[in-house]
TrEMBL record:
This is Ribose-5-phosphate isomerase A. It comes from the Bacteria. GO terms for molecular function: ribose-5-phosphate isomerase activity. GO terms for cellular component: cytosol. Its EC number is 5.3.1.6. It comes from Guptibacillus hwajinpoensis. Keywords: Isomerase. The gene is rpiA. GO terms for biological process: D-ribose metabolic process; pentose-phosphate shunt, non-oxidative branch. It holds the Pfam family Rib_5-P_isom_A. It catalyses: aldehydo-D-ribose 5-phosphate = D-ribulose 5-phosphate. Pathway: Carbohydrate degradation; pentose phosphate pathway; D-ribose 5-phosphate from D-ribulose 5-phosphate (non-oxidative stage): step 1/1. Gene3D superfamilies: 3.30.70.260, 3.40.50.1360. Signal peptide: none annotated.
Length: 221
């Protein structure tokens, strides 16, 4: 079993009967979703709130009942992946472009668990370019301001076209190389008109389950 599968499947053991569960996006939480689907087939009763169209499709294909965020009072537990995380459980997310819905769902969740393989754990954030979701209008200007903040920005594309998020926006990947002050950077980026949100998740996750070789390690706050 690889590290992603180890971590992803372990996280499913935190899901309990009757919970509303935020279902993250990506290749690690994929394994959580498949495991939850198996548990549902064996009688577990949960409702999922998907963080992306991709996850919605996966969950429905595997028989997990879903509900819209608007229809729940809160989410008991969200399980999601990360592109980078440090020992304070500050995360960089958005490698798959799902950061905005992921953050909205994390915000409305009582608990959040992160699942990742060991390559995602870093002492200094920022080697992974920070994804920033921007509205299409005037995006080149928004990109220029991001560059002035000290990064090398590049507009994300897919199959020779600009990548479009589930919310109809673009993603600018900002190579900062190092992010020593995540809170300050988070605030500064989100103040730029045209920016919808960025992939720094600060203060959301309380536990990380990391696949490490053939074992699992935990990071907790
Ligand atoms: O937009 C995508 C998400 O933030 C993912 O959770 C993140 O990119 C990690 O994905 P993976 O588990 O595939 O590395």
């Amino acid at each position: 079993m690889n590290e992603k599968q180890l971590a992803g499947e372990k996280a499913a053991s935190y899901v309990q009967d009757g919970m509303v569960v935020g279902l993250g996006t990506g290749s690690t939480v994929y394994w959580t979703i498949l495991k939850i689907a198996e548990m549902v087939q064996n009688g577990l009763s949960i409702t999922g709130v998907p963080t992306s169209k991709e996850t919605e499709k996966l969950a429905l294909e595997h028989g997990i009942p879903l509900i819209a965020l608007e229809e729940v009072s809160s989410i008991d537990l969200t399980i999601d992946g990360a592109d980078e995380l440090n020992d304070e459980l500050t995360l960089i997310k958005g490698g798959g472009g799902a950061l905005l819905r992921e953050k909205i769902i994390a915000y409305h969740s009582t608990h959040m668990i992160v699942v990742a393989d060991s390559s995602k754990v870093v002492s200094d954030l920022g080697t992974f370019p920070l994804p920033v979701e921007v509205v299409p209008f005037g995006y080149q200007k928004t990109l220029d301001v991001l560059q002035d903040m000290g990064c090398e920005p590049s507009i994300r594309s897919k199959n020779d076209s600009l990548f479009i998020t589930d919310n109809g926006n673009y993603i600018v990947d900002c190579a900062f190389r190092s992010i020593p002050y995540p809170s300050t950077l988070h605030e500064r980026i989100n103040q730029i008109p045209g920016v919808v949100d960025n992939g720094l998740f600060i203060g959301y996750a309380e536990k990380a389950i990391i696949g490490n070789g053939s074992t699992i390690t935990f990071l907790e706050k």
